[in-house]
Amino acid sequence: MIRPIITYPDRRLFLRSSEVERFDDELHRLLDDMYETMMAKNGIGLAAIQIAVPKRALIINLPDEEGHQHKEDLLELINPVILQQEGSQLYTEGCLSIPEVYEEVERAQWVKVAYFDRHGNERTLEAEGLLAVAIQHEMDHLDGHLFIEKLPYLKRKRIEKEYRKRQKRGSAQTPVRNL
Ligand code: CO
């Protein structure tokens, strides 16, 4: 089921999501709904809080070189924790919860993450490049943080002003590479 995505400045986006404790049908339904919603909105990543569920669950489905997403590449990370990180990279990020804002943000180049899959099995993953960016962006959502918080103060203020104007006016989304 496609669920509505909550958008900035909805206060729920600033909540710290709680740990998933049961790896049951309800969790599986949540993950399936997150996938349907992300695909419907042309996203490449989504955290549960973006559909108003404050649980530590996120999904990522990066496109291939031709821009196509394949479900077999879908990653589902439950209760993820970053064990190690290295280096830095700049990437122009977007977010389904902050429509039409795209800004360059600095993240670690490489991360090692421990997490659980949907059945409660412990796993680890090493990621670099865009996958590392996506993991860090979605994990920030679990702690109630948005990528625009990483921007310099004045830049953020300017972006927020433009964003509010656009929200009032209402405009078509250009849904590309949103996390
Ligand atoms: Co996001």
Describe the structure.
- With 179 residues, the protein is an alpha+beta fold.
- It has one domain (11-169): Peptide deformylase (Peptide Deformylase), CATH 3.90.45.10.
- The chain is 26% helix and 24% strand.
- It contains three helices and seven strands.
- It has helices spanning 25-40, 129-142, 153-169, and strands at residues 45-47, 57-60, 75-86, 89-93, 103-107, 110-116, 122-128.
- The chain has a five-stranded antiparallel sheet with strand order 1-2-3-6-7. The chain has a two-stranded antiparallel sheet with strand order 4-5.
- Bound molecules: cobalt (II) ion.
- Cobalt (II) ion binds next to helix 2.
- Residues 95-97, 137, 141, 179 line the site of cobalt (II) ion.
**Order of helix and strand elements from N to C terminus:** HEEEEEEEHH
How helix-rich are the residues, as a percent range?
Answer: 25-40%
Query: How many strand units?
Result: 7
The oligomeric state is: single chain
Q: What is the class in the CATH system?
A: Alpha Beta
CATH architecture designation:
Alpha-Beta Complex
Molecular shape:
globular
Question: CATH-wise, what's the superfamily?
Answer: Peptide deformylase
Give the N-terminus to C-terminus distance in angstroms.
19 Å
Question: Structurally, how many domains make up the residues?
Answer: 1
The major sheet is characterized as:
5 strands, antiparallel
Compute the average pLDDT: 95
Strand order of the largest sheet: 1-2-3-6-7
